[in-house]
């Protein structure tokens, strides 16, 4: 019997190599066999019908978050979107998102509007390196991710675990040495797609320490999306640093979205440990003062945060801090705390100065 490689089958069937590997590992390609680390496929095998659930397809050219990120605002987009102040004209002069994280709102804004000037920042240097690499060096990043993906998907559970731990150790070595390049960016994406729940957590020494997740066929390289993201970010200022550095960019023509680390709703909830830098109550109040300064400059501002009244109806922390702004409470679908009884719908705050 004539056999061909997964790469050749991908070309023949006009699908990605990853898709061929997934189909083979799901037992849907008649006669496919794993030889060592690679699938071989009978030359005359038929392309299996696509049994994937059809989810809403991304419109051509649209960009979406390329990482899973704790506190991601995917679910709140329809509420936050009501505040996009220039919806009619589909044009925004300046957009700033100083706590960008996974960028759910950023990409929503960029998919719906043309924006002349963009400023995004985050205190997480490895995250910002990934944004910069996608903007400036997407080809190298994509070829690294493709290689990692085809290498990883054919491995058995033990070999995957070994590969994950090696990638994590290499990521931490680069992080410790302050090396921020395409390799570090590819490891950031690889770890995010294969780790437990897409978490980003570091220990006291600053080492990323999330264990491996249990995904069967994680998508490590979404080439189309990375290219779309790269295109959308070509004119973006991408800054690693404190949100206050955005002050020089923001003026009366700027629409600003602030999504700081949540104020924890319970004493045990630990939503704030994204990086080595904690965001405690005094930081939340500093942000409220900063917002007031930008309000005085004439910027249009939206801020989101957790609603302390979910757990204590007498807690007026944000009502006091933002007493000069408008505060709306919107229902969100997240849990207060995995170990708590208080599950289900809770409110989040949307605070605006317009
Ligand atoms: C709630 S997350 C943002 C989530 C984002 N909106 C999304 O959709 O994925 C908060 C982000 O703020 C960043 N951060 C924490 N302290 C910061 C600071 N002082 N300045 C800038 N960014 C900070 C964290 O690294 C994290 O990515």
Structural commentary:
The protein has helices at residues 6-13, 17-25, 77-81, 104-112, 125-136, 138-153, 157-176, 182-194, 223-232, 281-297, 317-321, and strands at residues 3-5, 33-35, 38-42, 91-97, 114-122, 236-240, 254-258, 300-306, 326-332, 346-352. By secondary structure, the protein is an alpha/beta fold. It has 3 domains: 3-42; 74-123 and 241-352, Rossmann fold (3-Layer(aba) Sandwich), CATH 3.40.50; 125-233, Adenine-specific Methyltransferase, domain 2, CATH 1.10.1020.10. The protein has a 7-stranded mixed β-sheet with strand order 6-5-4-7-8-10-9, sandwiched between helices. It has a 3-stranded antiparallel β-sheet with strand order 1-3-2. Helix 7 packs across helix 8 (182-194). The longest helix has 20 residues, at 157-176. The termini are far apart. S-adenosylmethionine binds next to helix 4 and strand 5.
Keywords:
single chain; 354 residues; alpha/beta; Rossmann fold; Adenine-specific Methyltransferase, domain 2; 3 domains; 7-stranded mixed sheet; 11 helices; 10 strands; binds S-adenosylmethionine
């Amino acid at each position: 019997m004539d056999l061909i490689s997964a790469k050749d089958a991908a070309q023949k069937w006009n699908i990605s190599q990853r898709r061929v590997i997934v189909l083979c590992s799901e037992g849907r390609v008649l006669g496919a066999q794993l030889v060592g680390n690679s699938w071989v496929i009978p030359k005359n095998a038929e392309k299996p019908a696509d049994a994937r659930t059809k989810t809403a397809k991304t419109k051509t050219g649209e960009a979406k978050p390329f990482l899973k990120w704790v506190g991601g605002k995917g679910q709140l987009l329809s509420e936050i979107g009501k505040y996009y102040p220039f919806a009619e004209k589909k044009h925004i002069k300046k957009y700033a998102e100083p706590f960008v994280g996974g960028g759910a709102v950023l990409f929503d804004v960029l998919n719906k509007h043309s924006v002349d000037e963009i400023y995004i920042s985050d205190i997480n240097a490895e995250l910002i390196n990934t944004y910069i690499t996608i903007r400036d060096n997407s080809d190298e990043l994509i070829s690294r991710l493709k290689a990692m993906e085809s290498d990883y998907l054919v491995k058995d559970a033990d070999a995957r675990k070994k590969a994950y731990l090696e990638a994590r150790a290499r990521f931490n070595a680069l992080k410790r040495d302050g090396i921020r390049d395409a390799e570090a960016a590819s490891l950031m994406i690889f770890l995010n797609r294969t780790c437990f729940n897409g978490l980003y957590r570091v220990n006291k020494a600053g080492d990323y320490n999330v264990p491996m997740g249990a995904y069967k066929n994680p998508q490590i390289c979404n080439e189309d999306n990375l290219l779309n993201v790269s295109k959308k970010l070509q004119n973006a200022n991408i800054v690693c640093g404190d949100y206050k550095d955005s002050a020089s960019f923001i003026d009366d023509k700027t629409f600003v979205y602030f999504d700081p680390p949540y104020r924890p709703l319970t004493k045990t909830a630990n939503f704030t440990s994204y990086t080595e830098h904690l965001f405690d109550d005094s930081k939340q109040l500093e942000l409220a003062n900063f917002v007031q300064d930008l309000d005085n400059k004439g910027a249009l501002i939206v801020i989101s945060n957790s609603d302390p009244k979910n757990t204590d109806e007498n807690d007026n922390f944000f009502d006091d801090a933002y007493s000069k702004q408008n505060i709306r409470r919107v229902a969100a679908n997240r849990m207060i705390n995995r170990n708590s009884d208080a599950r289900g719908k809770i409110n989040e705050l949307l605070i605006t100065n317009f």
